[in-house]
Amino acid sequence: MCGIVGYTGPRDVGEVILNGLKRLEYRGYDSAGIAVKTDEGIYVQKRKGRIDDLSEEEIPEHDAGIGHTRWATHGKPSDKNAHPFLDCDEEISIVHNGIIDNFNTIKDRLIERGHEFRSETDSEVIVHLIEEEYEGDLLKAFKNVVKKIEGSYAIVVFQKDSNELLVARNQSPLVIGIGSGENFVASDVPALLYYTKEVKYLRDGDTALISRDEVKIWDENDEAITRETKTIDWDVEDAEKSGYEHYMLKEIFEQPKAIHESILGRLTSFEDVDFSKYDFDEVQFIACGTSSHAGYVGRYIFEKLAEIPSTVEVSSEYRYTSPSDSTPFTILFSQSGETLDTIAAAREAKRRGCNTLAVTNVMESSITREVDEVIYTQAGPEIGVAATKTFTTQIIILYLLAIELGLRKGVLSKDKAEEYKDELRKLPRKVERILDDKNEIKEMTESLVKAEDIFFVGRNINYPVALEGALKLKEIAYIHSAGYPAGELKHGPFALLTSETPVIAIAVKDHTFEKMLGNIGEIAARDSPVIIVGDEDKELKKLADLSYFIPNTPPIFSPVLVNVVLQLIAYYTAYRLDRDIDKPRNLAKSVTVE
Ligand code: M6R
Question: What global pTM score does this model have?
Answer without folding.
Answer: 0.82
